[in-house]
Design brief:
Blueprint (H helix, E strand, L loop, with lengths): L14 H6 L13 E4 L7 E12 L4 E21 L17 E23 L2 E14 L40 E2 L6 E10 L8 H6 L2 E10 L3 E2 L20 E2 L6 E8 L2 E5 L4 E2 L14 E2 L3 E13 L8 E9 L21 E3 L21 E9 L1
Parallel strand pairs: 1-4
Antiparallel strand pairs: 2-3, 3-4, 4-5, 5-6, 5-7, 7-8, 8-15, 9-14, 10-13, 11-12, 12-17, 15-16, 16-18
Length: 379
């Protein structure tokens, strides 16, 4: 049975019974935000395509080229409506606060081309895959900063109050068309493994050198996009722009060609090249119009098998060591893109994954070198 602290509200109880307990009372700050759902809300539509060709060049070498894409329409989005400054008197309904409006106003376009080259030998494999892709949408995650207003719980979702899933301009889903938050144009991944051959001479050294497997995984990726945000000011009757974007004064000087090092990172953006948009005006920089630094990683694995005849013909003991980020390389993350922040434009070392609005989804964050040991008995 759910035990609640004294004075707490059970938001899992029927809505009517919960609302009755607030009759004639001022709502506390922990009360969830209002959410309005389109009564005609429906499942989104997706059209996809795929075409590929594979050619065996030699007995060991194979080339594969694929093209694929997906187009989503009527996707679920969130808009914040009933905003301040919507009318000369304030909101459309001054008795209500901001309202999260859930509807089918989203769209997305994804296209990609992949090339895979494989070279096989009896004792190993070398594979290289390159992917070029481009993803465009008008909202990548409808739950960021929202999801039933989790401020009344102890759950931390990683978002800030400054960025919340909404269209920048109220009732205008087309204003935020741009690169998807996860748009990553180029990915090159190299993978290989090699089973070391047993020495021809059976000796003590030969016993030590045989039955080893070496494998590696290297990835080189282009950066993820980001938006340069600016302060939001509004004029009565002209509406409040949320997640407002900054104006760019000189596009050629916005990103430093040779970023200067600063403690913990580099100064990537030039503050002098940006300015705050006029009140109730959307900034002229696009959503996710800038691309962050690229990054790379290298993982290595070493394994040795010891045959155990007393466990049968296939019996063996396998010892394996995996080294993740074996070079202990720290990549640059996206810069602080909030104009007027003291650290605006600074890209710090140690990439942090993009947090989802759904608290069950944890971002993949960069870690220092990690070595993992494992022992496995097979029979």
């Amino acid at each position: 049975m759910l035990q609640l602290p004294a004075g707490a509200t059970n938001f899992l109880a029927p809505v009517l019974s919960v609302l009755q307990t607030f009759e004639g009372k001022a709502l506390p700050s922990t009360f969830p935000d209002l959410t309005l759902v389109d009564p005609d809300l429906r499942n989104g539509r997706v059209k996809s395509y795929f075409a590929g060709v594979q050619q065996r060049i030699t007995g060991n070498l194979t080339l594969e080229v694929n093209a694929l894409g997906a187009y989503g329409r009527a996707l679920i989005t969130t808009d914040v409506i009933n905003r301040s400054f919507s009318t000369l008197d304030g909101r459309y309904n001054n008795s209500l606060p901001d309202i999260a409006y859930r509807a089918n106003q989203g769209f997305s376009d994804y296209n990609a081309m992949t090339t895979v080259v494989r070279y096989r030998i009896p004792r190993g494999l070398l594979q290289g895959s390159y992917t070029w892709s481009h993803s465009i949408d008008n909202q990548s995650d409808p739950l960021v900063g929202d999801f039933f207003n989790l401020t009344f719980t102890s759950i931390q979702t990683g978002e800030t109050s400054e960025q919340r899933s909404t269209f920048s301009e109220q009732f205008n889903p087309n204003a935020d068309r741009g690169n998807s938050d996860f748009d990553q144009r180029q990915n090159l991944v190299l993978f290989s493994y090699w089973n070391l051959p047993a020495p021809f001479v059976q000796s003590r050294a030969g016993i030590v050198l045989r039955d080893w497997t070496v494998s590696g995984l290297a990835a080189f990726r282009s950066g993820l996009p980001y938006t340069v945000y600016g302060p939001s000011a509004a004029l009565p009757g002209q509406g409040l722009v949320l997640n407002n974007r900054a104006n760019v004064l000189d596009a050629s000087q916005a990103v430093f060609a040779n970023p200067a090092p600063v403690p913990g990172g580099v100064q990537l953006l030039n503050p002098e090249a940006f300015a705050t948009a006029a009140p109730s005006t959307l900034g002229d920089t696009g959503r996710n119009a800038f691309t962050g630094p690229g990054f790379y990683s290298f993982d290595l694995s070493l394994a040795r098998a010891f045959h155990l005849p007393w466990l049968g013909e296939s019996g063996q003991l396998r010892i394996r060591a995996d080294a993740y980020n074996v070079l202990n390389h720290a990549n640059l993350g996206n810069p602080d893109a909030q104009l007027n922040d003291p650290a605006f434009g600074v890209a710090s070392y140690g990439r942090q994954g993009y947090p989802s609005g759904f608290p069950a989804v944890a971002p993949l964050n960069e870690t220092p070198r990690e070595i993992q040991m494992s022992v496995k008995v097979e029979f």
